[in-house]
Amino acid sequence: MRLFLRQARPHKARLALGFLFYAGASCTSMPQLWVVGKVIDEGFIARSPRDLAAWLGVAAALVVLQPILWANGFRQFSTVEARNQRQLVRDLTDRLNTAGPAVRDRVSSGELLNLPSEDARRAARAVNDAGFFFNTLVMFLVGAALVWSIHPLLGVVIISGSLVTAVIAGPLLGRLQASQSDYRARIGDLSAHAADIVGGLRVLRGIGGDVLFAARYRERSDELRRKGYEVAGPSSWIHALRHSMPIVFVAVITWVGALLAADGAITIGGLASAFSFATIFIAVSGNFVGTSQYLVAAWVAAKRIVRVLRIEPDLADDGTARGGRGELRDPESGLAVPVSGLTVVVTAETAPAAAACERLARYRDSETVWGGRPLAEYALAEVRSRIMLLTDEDYLFTGTLAATLRVPEARARQAVAAACADDLASQGMDLVVEEGGRNLSGGQRQRLRLARALAAEPETLLAVEPTSAVDAHTESLIASRVAAARAGRATLVVTASPLWLAHADRVAWMVDGKVHALGTHAELLADAAYRRLASHSA
Amino acid sequence: MSTMETVRGRLPVAGPAAVRRAVGRLLAADPGRASAVLLLYFGAAAFSVSVPILLGKVVDGIAADWTTGQVHLVCAVILACVCVQFVLSRLGRLAGYRFGERAAARLRESVVERVLSLPLVQVERAGRGDLGTRTASDVNVVADMLRDNGPTVATLVIEVVVLYVATFVASPLLGLVALVTVPPLYLSARRYLRRAAPAFLEQRAAMSEAAETISASGAGARTVESLAMQEERRELGYARGQSMMDKMLRVVRLQTNFFTLLLMINRGQLVLVTLAAGIWYFQGGLTLGTAIAAITVTVRIANPTNGIMTQLGEFQQGAAALARIEGVNLIPEEPRDARPEGARLRLDGVTFGYGDGPDVLHGLSLHPAPGERLVVVGPSGAGKSTIARLLAGIDRPRTGNATLGGVPVYDIGVEELRRHVVLVTQEHYVFTASLRDNLILAAPDAGDERLREALRRVDARWALEEGLDVMLGEEHRKLTTAEAQQIALARVVIADPDIVILDEATAGIDPASAGNVEAALAAALAGRTVIAIAHQLQAARSADRIAVVEGGRIAEAGTHEELLAAGGVYAGLWHAWQGD
To answer: How many inter-chain contacts (A to B, CB under 8 Å) are there?
Structure first.
């Protein structure tokens, strides 16, 4: 609710104007039907061409005026709706900037796709639906008053008729939705099944199972069809009721009106316009139900958005210290990064070593110390600008190669050379990298991520398996070039490849998430278990 | 690992004529039900339109001093008509829903069937996104159209037609006057649709761009932090929001203009009919009752007309979705009917390049011996994966031959081919299904013991512990890369083909476990021809033969010892890799 209010506040004047236009449109719409009665009574029955012309003139004026007023109202509300969409996308952008990793952990990628598109659209719509609701309400009130003025009895019939229609249509519709939710869920299941088939199409065509999966899909599709048949029963009742209820009231109005007219209590024109009002109220009572449904959908979508906007960063950024210096140490694993040189972490299982790196780079809170002081006491911006973590999860955003590397060309070229990504750079620095690097092969992505990290020249670089998707020859080149390029700065690489170990200043051998032994590669090779892990000649 | 992922063909989209044919097919497939639906709708509309006609009778009756009894009688008839209308409309709806349900089922089943018979090369190229959208969300859009909007608009159209007929019945001249507004309505609707279609598309595109940017910001949240990209992401996100707003405002402008016109035309029609009725009434050509009947019928025309007009856009979207679905049918079938004699797989002097690109392979020959374990190594981009694709019959060489049992591999039917050759890549797909269903793909009749044996052979102890009934997939049991790899390999063991091609199949497993899986797999595939493509050298040493690929050619081939003795490329790589 607060989201809706916050969205409405900056547009108060515009919304007020919109309400005014809508009120005007309603006040010019309903009297048109009342004029029909006047035309019949004072024009037709009185056989007065002058009065006929006069009333038709009034009607024509209203016919021209009403759409213009309505359109202006619609424009106001829609403009606010469009601005709200923009605002929601902005809010999501800002939230991702402040609490990004926390959002990623708590919101699925599918949901994240839906939030700025479908959900934002639905939530932003609320204001327009509120406008429609208001418009309908005013139409209803003005219409009811005019019918009342023809004859109170007709007024009572038409108001109670609309109420009954709304009451019947509303709850019935609710029941329909309840019975449909199972059906909708099945549609979702079946789509997911189809998506699954497409996702694994390569396997199904290459190894087999296409016949099996086709048969299973047909089975489920048939089940859905049967379920659809079941839903068709109640659905058809409700649609027929919604469609026929108003006509029933038209018939009742006709009956009551005819008796009144026969008695002379109302004029023939009054009867005709009462009939017309009843006809138009069909649409009006339907609108109430329709807009309420949309408002409910908007509410649900807004709740989803608010949930994300409320996600706070995982890490408290209340440290203020700057200028960290000295060794970086994670007491939990015993892993330490000295101020300079290449440290290689050798481990049979990558995950615990990667977790230690996350603690060292403060992507999760820990007891890590930097130059004798807890890492958490430093400002997060300071930590981020000086310690960089490189993993295969690092994302490649869409953009040219130059934009991806984010540094002047000469420096970018050096980084590209060190990461052996020349095959990409040779296609030009304006080569476009698509979202997630999906137009590159796994090896190309990995080398580009490495080049980007090298180009940033962080004081401390922690790299987890930076060359796992690269061939031996290239890996060997990368290891020597990176070691040379980062001489004098701190670099830590998690890998068991001898090609990296050949350049290591020191090696930390990790077992079960703890540093088991420290030393040079040559020293550690004395241990058979280490040799099995870190030497391909064993 | 090659340039293959940079080549991505777009799937075709059907033209308007093909879409019309598709709609015709959907309707014609169930002619009995379709005509029953139409008949019921017409009946319902006819009975509902009798209400204003009878109102005219009442008016004339009142003028003719009817008794109350007569008024009661006619009004009772009106109410009876409404009841009949209700029954017919409910039956029509029921038949309409069922018709739509059947048509939707037929549509989605035929799409999935078609997708499952796509040529391999298309499957590889299309990428999941496009094909996935077509089989899932596009099918749903069209199905909703068939189930819901279709029947609704059909009732509205029929209602409008019946109402116009009714004005003619009441008074042919007034009927003509009422028709005067149809041409401008038609023209403005056409104009609106022509402009709105691209505007809606742009709006959708802006929305998916925003979605893509936001989800990229989410997926890359840590990267944003680590590279301090907040400012760029903010600018980009704000620009996406702005474009979403601009595109929506454009749609709103078009809608505002169209709806304004629509409202004016609808009510203008009423004024015109009333005017004409007045003139003719004064001339004595018309009773008051007929005039009122015609006027009140005209009042009613507005509602269904608005209903149709507001749904036009959705129909357009439905047609666009159907065009994409039909596009899948436009992919040419590959005639594949060659039958191999024996299981000798070989490449002879093949050249190949992707799309219009330069050659990736240059006259390369490779003759794996039956039962041998051949490892293909070489630097990234040397063409290793391309060799795998030619051997597996996915692509056709530009020149030279890729043959299995003497016939071109790419001419062998997929069902036949996969009994001989199976390609396993590093992309391991796990279906949202039970472990059993994930395994029995190639052998639907395989017993549980055979499945367990295969799991044992690939060292998947976790799977044996959890049992064959465990549900796999994102929202059930999520597998690690290594576990997914084991499933992929177990599938191959169960499929038991003559030749297995492993394209970096064990990349991405922890170094320690990779060894286990490879050893287990070697044992599991004993006696089969195994062609393993690798960028790491683990697998090379134990191979029967090693082929080194460089720059699209076989640089050297032989056993590990032979190549080391030769002191060529491989020897260099090996020494580097060992850390010598």
So the answer is: 497
Nearest-by-Cβ selection for A39 from B274, B511, B577:
B274
pLDDT bucket at B2, cuts 50 / 70 / 90: very low
The 10s digit of each residue's pLDDT in A377-406 is 899 888 998 999 999 889 999 889 999 998
Residues forming beta bridges with residue B347, ordered by sequence position:
B366, B402
* Pick among A74, A88, A254 to test the B interface (most B CBs inside 10 A): A254
Strand A460-464 relative to strand A328-330, pairing: unpaired
Asked if B279 and B319 count as a contact pair (C-beta separation under 8 A), the reply is: no
Q: How many domains does chain B have?
A: 3
Chain B residues closer than 8 Å to A502 by CB: 579
A-chain residues within 8 Å CB-CB of B248?
A: 78, 81-82, 85
Domain boundary assignment for chain A? 1-149+305-313, 328-395+441-534
Task: Provide the pLDDT for residue B331.
Answer: 80
Residue A321 per-residue DSSP state: B
How far CA B267 is from CA of A157, B225, B289, B544, in Å, comes to: 25, 59, 21, 87
Q: Smallest Cβ distance to A262: which of B66, B123, B492?
A: B66
Neighbours of A516 (CB within 10 A): 17
Q: How confident is the model at residue A240 (pLDDT cuts 50, 70, 90)?
A: confident
pLDDT, residue B5, reads: 33
Shortest CA gap A7–chain B (Å): 15
Strand order of the β-sheet with A506-511 is A387-390, A460-464, A490-494, A341-347, A506-511, A514-519
- B212 with B356, same domain? no
Tokens of B298: 């005209």
ipTM of the complex model: 0.84
Same domain membership, residue B360 and residue B497: yes
Is A103 an interface residue toward B (CB < 8 Å)?
yes
Report yes or no: A324 and A378 within 8 Å, Cβ to Cβ.
yes
Per-residue burial over B194-206, b = 16 or more CB atoms within 10 Å of its CB, e = otherwise: ebbeebbebbeeb
Q: Look up residue A65 and give its two tokens.
A: 């005026």
Phi, then psi, of B556 in degrees rounded to 5: -160, 160
Q: Domain limits at B563? A: 345-578
- List, for residues B429-458, the tens digit of each pLDDT value: 888 888 998 988 888 888 899 999 888 888
CB-CB contact of B353 with B421 (8 Å):
no
**pLDDT (0 to 100) of residue A490:** 93
Q: What pLDDT was estimated at residue B4? A: 33
pLDDT at B7: 34
Q: What is the pLDDT of residues B130-175, one digit of tens each?
A: 777 777 778 888 888 888 788 888 888 988 998 899 888 888 888 8
Determine the CATH number of domain A1-149+305-313.
Answer: 1.20.1560.10
For residue A473, give the nearest of B135, B277, B573 by CB distance.
Answer: B573
3-state secondary structure A222-242: HHHHHHHHHHHHHHHHHHHHH
Residues 6+ apart with CB under 8 A from B396: B402, B408, B410
B159 and B194 inside one domain:
no
Q: Write down the number of H helices and E strands in chain B.
A: 21, 10
Query: Under an 8 A CB cutoff, do B278 and A107 touch?
Result: no
CB neighbourhood size of B341 (10 A):
10
> Does residue B481 lie within any of the structural domains?
yes
Q: Are residues B425 and B503 in the same domain?
A: yes
- Which fold is adopted by the domain A328-395+441-534? Rossmann fold (3.40.50)
Indicate which of A108, A395, A447, A464 best probes the interface with B, i.e. most B CBs within 10 Å of its own CB: A395
Within 8 A of B334 by CB-CB distance, chain A residues are: none
Which one, of A472, A431, A473, lies nearest residue A448 by Cα? Answer: A431
Q: Are residues B144 and B187 in the same domain?
A: no
Q: In what order do the strands lie in the sheet with B553-558?
A: B421-424, B499-503, B529-534, B373-377, B545-550, B553-558
